[in-house]
Batch of 4 targets.
Target 1
Amino acid sequence: MPTPITPSAAATPSAATTHQVRIERYADQGRCVAHIDGRVVFVRFALPGELVTIALDEPHDRDDRFWTGEVVEVIEPSEDRVEPAWPLAGPLAFGGGVGGADLIHVSVPGQRAWKSATVSEQMKRLGHVDVEVPVIGVPGDDERHGLGWRTRIEMIVDEEGCPSMRRRGTHVRVPIDAMPLATDALNTVAEQEHVWDGGFEAGSQIRVAVPEPRGGLTGEPGGNASPDDRNYAVLVDGELRAGTQALTERVAVNDANGDPHEFTYTVDAGGFWQMHREAPNVLANTVLDLVRKSLGRVIRRNGRDIVLWDLYSGSGLFTLPLASLAAERTRVLSIEGAKTAVHNAHRNLGRAGLGNVDARTGDVSRTLRVVPKHFSRPDVVVLDPPRAGARKQVCRQIAEAGAPAVVYVACDPASLARDTATLVGLGYSIRHIEAHDIYPDTHHVETVALFTR
């Protein structure tokens, strides 16, 4: 039996506010389920099967249908429980509470089992399909206990002018002088640009973005930036303070023979890009593999150009390899709502010499109402919507276009599950689904699903 875990005496809540409970199962948002006198309680920093003492969040005497609380003592730990590699992100009772890593108390294999269970449950409950969803780790994350992966971080400035994170449930801002979830390269840049030294205006928002991989930064502990490497950005309230606004990202994608091709992207320092150092490589290769498998039958059936849609396409992470590696004689329609991202996508396509892409700016659903005839019948649709998902209208438009296959990339399992229910109702079925653990130490996960008619 693992050793019981107790908080410091100073951090222990009074007995009047605490309850001893047996944790029952996983829930959403990195929480687990327990019951107190028949009432559901969502508990942070717990694991199924554990006997723990929890403190209920205030107000704890309300008549809501459920309560929330947090572990303050672990009496019978799970085998998956570990000492937090970043204690500041752990439970309040143990000196943590800053957030950003709600599974920091779980072993890396335990985190993947948790995510597999929760994604599978969402697909069953909201998507009405019974599938087991494997969660695939990223090389290097196990050895680093889920740390050192973020290429972008954001912080708030405290009253002393220092970078900080707010302690949950309070207005207290905890100053920080490093970010364990961030890559060594990012922490090195933050040190070189004196981010941790402070001197900022209280209340300002700091964003640090450092692309990976990079020349001049080794990516190993102690890596140093070369003086002329300005491929990073320090933004304060959206204004560039150091580095460059236009960042360069590089992604390696394999062709059908397994040979790697490098794609170069210009990305706005304040815009969206996958945060995990390896996520662009992992996701681009996964998507291209599923697209090529879906196209095999289409290519043999006729000799016309292959038509692909890339919806919510951002700066073109998937667009470039789709246009050049998916198949011969390919035409791609990409749609993205963010003007800066589409501007960069045009730049990225021009740099790659790709003239077979029509990259459009606009709301996806509205743009799909008027599609040029030569793009109107896609062979495969790729979509990577925001957290809210594609929703019913876009799903209907995909189905009405007659797409035989849909590759869906989702950052929110619940949204994917709801859209799954819509697609299944429109005649699609899941051919393949897998999740990628590109957000270690958090409850987030990226899921990729292939739907076919």
Target 2
Amino acid sequence: MKTYLRISPKDNVAVALAPLPSGTTVELNGLSLILKDEIPQGHKFALTDIPEGSQIIKYGYPIGLATENIPSGSWVHTHNIRTGLGDLLTYTYDRQVTELSTTPERFFQGFRRPDGKVGVRNELWIIPTVGCVNNVATAIERRARNLVTGTVEAVAAFPHPYGCSQMGEDQENTRRILADLISHPNAGGVLVLGLGCENSNIDVLKEYIGTYDPRRVKFLVCQDSDDEIEDALELLRDLAAYAGTFQREPVSCSELVIGMKCGGSDGLSGITANPTVGAFSDLLISKGGTTILTEVPEMFGAETQLMDRCENEELFTQTVDLINDFKQYFKSHGQTIYENPSPGNKKGGISTLEDKSMGCTQKSGTAPVSGVLAYGEQVHEKGLNLLSAPGNDLVASTALAASGAHIVLFTTGRGTPFASPVPTIKISTNNRLNEKKNNWIDFNCGTLVEGGTLDELRDRFFDYVISVASGEQVKSEKAGFHDMAIFKQGVTL
């Protein structure tokens, strides 16, 4: 088993794949050094003497600047490295696009909808228009569980605190996300539950939903009902009867849309799980499928790699706006743009935002960027898409689902039990997490440091995703979890 790794020949640091005691002799490509410090798993150590003010190179790119002279063999972390990033930047398009070769078609067992869309689940969703009816929605969910029969796979309510007393873009966010979820093909039937006096009431929301199938989407205004729970159950029985007419059938994976997100990252994220997801993304796209990468603040420091992979200058300009608009969002709220990574990230070995971003963007693979999406915008281009959303796990995963992702891939070095509106596959970066929180983790990439190839792990992971798309439940689904969260912007009344 390898115990340390130099990711790129350009790097002046290596990463400990296992805890390394002080005094360990390290030999790498003709280099020989003795560790001066104990190096925790996922953390970095210097391969050469690094003078104060010099760049720290990892993944072949700068991830920060040395704040002091760092002798060879020393631990490199937050005590002796700082970010080298600035505020708003001017970018130049340097097109470096590598087209992927087409690979043979694969199929999963999905639900074909009358509008041509495909779902990987056949669930009944209860979507409140406003937080005032959250408890009613969850009560209806409990009462309706007996409707899970035949091909109806779950009943899920999605409570949230919004829908009223919101202004401007903040209110638009709520309406767009709710409308997107109502239209999501993983739901065979949807009950939209309103109060009646809210800003984002059902009549307003219908303008955002557009054309809908009345067999699939039904509405209930609680203030107009004598007994909203009984009336809702009657509507759900009709929806269940309709949803129950759908059967799984073979569907080309060219119709799969997969969201990609990471959280609780560690120093192995960019070495094991994220490259595996990136390799998966390339493979799915080579078969005609679609992936979506989000959490824009965690592209800062690696954004030029994504910009140069844009298929054309228009997409490049959209990506520049994606990055700088999010930076401006932070500035407008008096926040430091580069106040990242989190305490958990640092404990796992990530020292700066550049360090985190370089690892994060490994999930994008090598495919060209074919689309750039605003928050709440549904995907319309096959291939790799970039989506505007924050780094918050719940918000970003919900945004991926709202944009059309059938499944979310979530890599993590520390673990989390949360779900999203769609199946959320938890992918561990290290073996310890997989062993400790096996009730959370669906797939372990920590084995990559023990041997085997990235291609082998990618293929095994691809098979697993196909099985989930065909109905195999992930751990959070088995626990009965369905979560959603909306990006909070602006002010409330």
Target 3
Amino acid sequence: MTTLASGTDTLTRDALTVLQPGFTGTTAPDWLLRRLGEGLASVGLFGRNITSSGQLAALTAQLRAERDDVLVAIDEEGGDVTRLEVRTGSSFPGNHALGAVDDVELTREVAHELGRRLAACGVNLNWAPSADVNSNPRNPVIGVRSFGADTELAARHTAAYVTGLQSAGIAACTKHFPGHGDTAVDSHHALPRIDVPADVLTDRELTPFRAAIAAGSRAVMSAHILVPALDPDRPATLSRRILTGLLRGELGYDGLIVTDGMEMRAIAGTYGIERGSVLAVAAGADAICVGGGLADDATVRRLRDALVAAVRAGELPEERLAEAADRVRALARWANTARRAPEETRGSEIGLHAARRALTVTAAPGLGSPETFEPLTEPPYVAALTPVANIAVGDETPWGVAAELVQLLPGTVTGSFSAAERKESDAGAGESAGRAALQAAGPRRIVAVVRDEHRHPWMASALGTLLAARPDTIVVEMGVPQAAPRGALHIATHGAARVCGRAAAEVIAGL
């Protein structure tokens, strides 16, 4: 373990301590190890840093050789948002699937198992769970990352998830405060706005966060959203009214407050990351997450220097920065104490069990019932109607049922069909995609895979074109099942994790 660099003064050390940067590569670069020696206390990992559990364990060991109490954070929600299994798809269903089952003990078990897997790899802080109530069905960034649209359901499962994760020695980071569910804009691209009265926010958005706080969530992540009923001028991440007045004062939360990624356009495009970081700490944030897109020493140096300069200029109280750094160190101490010998994990057993329970299977009127459905015995054609991926999920993680059906019904053929981003609302583009899928399928039985059909007019049109010509088409909805079920058999998986695809494929193949 390297001791703190002797030339690093307290102010500079505190400025480094509140940063949670990312980096590129699958081993720690020299600059990162040097910064750990100077006071940096946290590191954020993303899919680009991980190739296998063994490699990840070696990476975290490398970090701990430099600083044994380092916080190693990751964005591992399970379900659609996975970093551990970014190249294969997750072994665990996401929140929406768990909410569909509505068994809080199952949610706790899944979170505990996911936590054990993280702990075995040396990770000790998870930027999860999402406590957002998905009250806006057209939400482009939350969706299946939420337990659902029901406030009380979201609250009880958020608490169960926090409890399960932390029982494995992993600090939970409940997000995105004060609630990102009623938005129609992705904060990766612009600043969302929630225009509802304060009493609605209190009863709906804040209830799951109260449950998380009561369950002992060690961290809470702020949202880059403007909520005029709470603060008409600044987004939550930069709002003292929201972070200090509401979260600290009214809700009584005393754990770590982490920002969402400061390089997201909602902040970077308006304030810039340096100014945004200063304002966030001044508002009450304790840790600055940066590194999803910006991941180098120059960024760390710029943010460190901006914080130091703000203190020296009187724009940021030195006591506030010191308090933030102390909270980071306190969480690091907890995580270090909670660290335990690796436990034997149950693999994907609990995840697949949960994914099977989450399925909702229906049949179109006049086409029989799920009970009379005759499983496929011949390899089908899988037509994946693919939307533009949001940044949180990423476009590198595979999804669908094709890979699983290839295993169960060898010879299965697949094709992907989409509309250009500028034509996402164009029904005509959907008809063209549907006709292309019909031609590619030939005489094979079609399995059409969709994701949030209700949000994509082109997708609804493509599916309509398929069903008009081939009413025996099986439809698998892997997003939020808001559109009316269609198809000879309609399978709603409530998420696109690999185990969700496996569960749907088993139904199709009659297993």
Target 4
Amino acid sequence: MNYRIIPMALLLTVMVTLPAGAQKKKAVINDSNTPLHLLQPGYQGKYGELTPEQVKTDLDRVFTYVDRETPARVVDKHTGKVITDYTKLDVNSQLERGAFRLASYEWGVTYSAMMAATETSGDSRYMDYVKNRFRFLAEVAPHFKRVLEEKGDTDPQMKQILTPGALDDAGAVCAAMIKASLKDRTLPVQGLIENYFDFIVNKEYRLADGTFARNRPQLNTLWLDDMFMGIPAVAQMSLYADKAQAKHQAEAVRQFLQFAERMFIPEKGLYRHGWVESSSDHPAFCWARANGWAMLTACELLDVLPENHPQRDKVMAYFRAHVRGVTALQSGEGLWHQLLDRNDSYLETSATAIYVYCLAHAICKGWIDPIAYGPVAQLGWNAVSGKINAEGQVEGTCVGTGMAFDPAFYYYRPVNVYAAHGYGPVIWAGAEMIRLLKTLHPKMNDSALQYYTTKQATAAPIFSVPTAE
């Protein structure tokens, strides 16, 4: 059952009405007359047992919204007229504008999440969404490329696909396209994958040791975000290009460890957001979503690395230390703070959703303990669920965020329902919660959620687990 806020005054005292003429007395609930431990806590929001069907209801509401807001059509930007003959595209042709872009890194996350939703729920609409958008992009790309070559310009959204200029443009969508292609080899995305991957491995700026880097806001800066923007695509390519499997695995691991060695803070169990090569000190602003990208990168890499890979244990050790650091900072409401270790910063949705996915996924994979982390994941999901409004929009998501070396920048980043960063993580988190709830058996025991490996049949509010015979 789900517990909601109950005024404590109603729980602690009752008024007893005596017969007419008698004096009214207040009967006080106390330790002598009432089992106080059975009083229901005033949990904030939803708390308690959860079913896959409840999670799926939330996911469907988000899906309906994003499906409507991401049309797959080409239009004339002046008249709005739909163009179906792509041979006639010109400089006035563009992808129809919905609320979200079809090939941003945020939507690369969404495509991966959609595939997971079909896998765990059995609902083919989510995978169909991915296939339909990828087929559309693959079909129109050559025609927009022709316009770009002939006229020197084309739709900015298509230019991002055709001529990526940063890992943000390439990595997440490339990884999602590889995953989709591995599921359905008829998808005509090979050319797009090759173009994206060429940028990632051959054109992206790097430090002298080969680590993905940027020259903003300072020369030779590492962004924690770029772990996710680059590494999962390299890891996935090891599955896609069989002949280069070892090479791509080695590069993915090398990138992961070179980021982690500079940016992981062992005493916190968290990652700093930025690292500047020329700086003598490296401030630790532990931005929540960037830590989410790092944790998600570890999951994506561990999913690909074989059990006997020589560096797998090292990657796993970073992942588990990060899990311990992050979970220790979850708020009582279930969300995590914008700056993880500063609980006066606001509570943020997209990072919370990423952590929920990673924790649920790691439990299902057997990487972390379900007793310790199952309730954390479920508390986080319940908090995320409360941020999905009636229209299917995700509330409380921080907008796109650069890098800074003072706290005010992070404290005052706006939140917006049109911040695309929230949608993929929420769908991915829900998809993995469905898997988790089908795998393990959460049950209320003494007003607390517990995770069990076997179903507990009792209806008692407090119970002991039967010993093995």
